[in-house]
């Protein structure tokens, strides 16, 4: 049985989850004194932009606003940060491992800081410097992470799998996050039961325990829907289960492949990552390992759409083009020019569409990877408002992911939402986006308002910025460096110079 430790206390001593200066956005292996420059070009960002503002995390305060004056013409090179979704699952996976894991290229976001805080609340020792985080979970002394932190976002719930697998039990609060649909945890619960856990919901917390009193056992489980979070959680759990586990209809997302790679590097035996079936041979223990977080395909997709929406040309790296082939195909069909400069550098240009033919609208239906990502659906909707013709956007993953449409209407977009489908009426001579005051209600929907503000005539004021800060590292600074007129308005008592 685990001994008790004080909850919420970071055992590492020299790390505070909100200490933003520990992270910067260059990949591991580059000179920490010099910004990452991609393929030998000039530095991507001036050094003062590489360091987040030193305000002890208060720039996620609810009174924050972004003021964007458009229309913008963007140009230059933007560095793509490490993947938020990949970092969250890999940070949770360190709970499966004895010894120290070294995770590099972790983006400095409120979500990643919350995950670090969750690990600290259970007694993990954490040190961070530059783009690296060292995590040792040998000192974990409680199987109940801080409930307040878990409720901040959905990714915190991932820890239930590794906790039950390694320690035989877990007590985890129901997760929070963006209000974009039910996203129930029943897949997680039924999957853990298939691996020999007794799982109950009491007082807003999920209590899970190995039925045999020792640990999980291998089993078979078919997911009703290829949920990324459930796939990752059950994969982590199965790594330490006694025997062989077969998971079918699993998610094929690059983040799942990245997690499987990390766990295999730690001594796990996972086969089939990237397909719809996983075969996992359980091991009695795993050791810590090193991992470099892959570039964020959703951030890269967002900047690709920013280039198209503002009829600009942007160069971006590092990216993994195969992670974004679905969006690349749609943008090419619309009339954008996309050029691959090197294995990890893309150029997206829509400049000719401004002077000659307009971009053509297209239809989108979101789906699990390799389908069109739900996380760039709201941003794509903004592009379609600037294209010729009528387009349709169908959301098949989250039932409430159309909340941004009502805010886009305030900016002059012409969108008709019917259930999970939206008809987007493109640009004509009488219409165009105009600045207004809007509210970000969730992460990706909030980002769609930023993109709309870049294309809109006049000034757009966006509140609810804390949602956007969950997923985009140094967003306003990156946009400024590309030439956008973006200001962050702080609550008066929190103001600090950039």
Question: Share of helix among residues?
Answer: 25-40%
For this structure, what is the CATH class of the largest domain? Alpha Beta
Mean pLDDT: 85
Q: Biggest sheet: strands, sense, closure?
A: 4 strands, mixed
Q: What oligomeric assembly is this protein in?
A: single chain
Give me the number of helical elements.
16
Strand order of the largest sheet: 23-24-1-25
Q: How many strand elements?
A: 25
End-to-end Cα distance, whole Å, is 49 Å
Radius of gyration: 22 Å
Q: Label the overall shape.
A: elongated
State the CATH architecture of the largest domain.
Alpha-beta prism
Q: Name the CATH superfamily classification of the largest domain.
A: Enolpyruvate transferase domain
Low-confidence sequence ranges: 1-60, 178-182, 494-498
CATH topology of the largest domain: UDP-n-acetylglucosamine1-carboxyvinyl-transferase, Chain
Strand content: 15-25%
Give the tally of structural domains: 2
SS content category: alpha/beta
Enzyme class: transferase
Pathway: Cell wall biogenesis; peptidoglycan biosynthesis
Keywords: Cell cycle, Cell division, Cell shape, Cell wall biogenesis/degradation, Cytoplasm, Peptidoglycan synthesis, Transferase
Subcellular location: Cytoplasm
């Amino acid at each position: 049985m685990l001994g008790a430790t004080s909850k919420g206390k970071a055992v590492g001593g020299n790390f505070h989850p909100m200490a933003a200066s520990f992270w910067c956005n260059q990949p591991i292996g580059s000179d920490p004194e010099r910004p990452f420059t991609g393929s030998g070009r000039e530095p991507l960002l001036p050094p003062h932009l590489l360091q987040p503002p030193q305000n002890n995390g208060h720039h996620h305060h609810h009174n924050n606003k972004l003021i964007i004056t458009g229309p913008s013409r963007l140009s230059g090179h933007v560095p793509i940060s490490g993947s938020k979704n990949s970092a969250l699952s890999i940070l949770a996976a360190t709970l499966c491992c004895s010894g120290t894991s070294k995770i590099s290229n972790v983006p400095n976001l409120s979500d990643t800081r919350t995950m670090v805080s969750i690990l600290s609340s259970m007694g993990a020792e954490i040190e961070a410097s530059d783009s690296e985080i060292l995590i040792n979970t040998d000192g974990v002394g409680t199987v109940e992470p801080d409930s307040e932190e878990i409720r901040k976002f959905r990714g915190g719930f991932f820890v239930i799998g590794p906790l039950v697998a390694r320690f035989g039990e877990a007590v985890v609060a129901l997760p929070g996050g963006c209000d974009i649909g039910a996203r129930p945890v029943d897949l997680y619960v039924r999957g853990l039961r298939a691996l020999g856990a007794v799982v109950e919901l009491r007082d807003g917390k999920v209590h899970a325990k190995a039925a045999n009193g020792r640990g999980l056992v291998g089993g078979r489980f078919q997911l009703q829907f290829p949920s990324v979070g459930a796939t990752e959680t059950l994969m982590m759990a199965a790594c330490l289960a006694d025997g062989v586990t077969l998971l079918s209809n699993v998610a094929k997302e690059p983040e799942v492949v990245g997690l499987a790679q990390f766990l295999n590097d730690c001594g796990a035996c996972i086969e089939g990552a990237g397909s719809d079936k996983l075969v996992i041979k359980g091991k009695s223990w795993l050791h810590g390992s090193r991992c470099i977080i892959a570039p964020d395909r959703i951030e890269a997709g967002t900047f690709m759409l920013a280039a198209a929406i503002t009829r600009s040309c942007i160069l971006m790296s590092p990216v993994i083009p195969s992670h974004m082939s679905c969006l690349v195909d749609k943008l090419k069909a619309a009339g954008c020019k996309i050029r691959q400069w090197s294995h990890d550098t893309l150029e997206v240009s829509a400049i000719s569409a401004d002077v000659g033919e307009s971009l053509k609208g297209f239809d989108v239906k979101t789906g699990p990877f390799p389908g069109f990502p739900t996380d760039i659906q709201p941003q794509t909707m903004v592009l379609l408002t600037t294209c010729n013709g009528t387009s349709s956007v169908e959301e098949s993953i989250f039932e409430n992911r159309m909340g941004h449409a009502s805010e886009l209407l305030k900016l002059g977009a012409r969108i008709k939402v019917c259930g999970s489908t939206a008809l987007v009426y493109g640009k004509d001579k009488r219409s165009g986006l105009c600045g207004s005051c809007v509210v970000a209600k969730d992460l990706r929907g909030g980002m769609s308002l930023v993109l709309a503000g870049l294309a809109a005539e006049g000034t757009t004021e966006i509140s609810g910025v804390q949602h956007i800060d969950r997923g985009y590292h140094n967003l306003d600074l990156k946009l400024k460096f590309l030439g956008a007129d973006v200001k962050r308005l702080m609550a008066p008592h929190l103001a600090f110079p950039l």
